[in-house]
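INFO  loader      accepted 1 record
INFO  loader      residues=147
INFO  predictor   begin
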Amino acid sequence: MTITTRPASEVDVPALLALYAELHPDDPAPSTQAAVGAWRAIEAQAGRVVFLAESDGVVVGTIDCATLPNLTRGARPFMLVENVVVTTGHRRLGVGAALLEAAFALARHTHCYKIQLLSRASREAAHAFYESLGFRAVAQGYRLYLD
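INFO  predictor   done
INFO  writer      dumping tokens
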């Protein structure tokens, strides 16, 4: 199986929404207008890239990368990674690794000093995967959901 990665564009919004529905199946689907508006806001953000992974022309995964300016660490930026999703039928086939390698390459290109991601505490298989790629659990994360 050949896996390619590329930055997403507005035409990929339906594929992204399908992937995100796998990640958060209980979330309500946004209207087309809301989804396109959100995509356009994402696309306009400096340092923001959403990558897609494809196999045989079919979208099978995504990762959202935000490179943020920073005044510490010699004013080197850092990257936040969010919404890592691989379709159920393509897990453990290298899709996630290809997506993270795209993120690593972007982080190196933009001279980031670190890549940071959060993962729900219950996702032990995901944690093992991230650790196999060099991530380490070195901090405690906090969230405050506003709803």
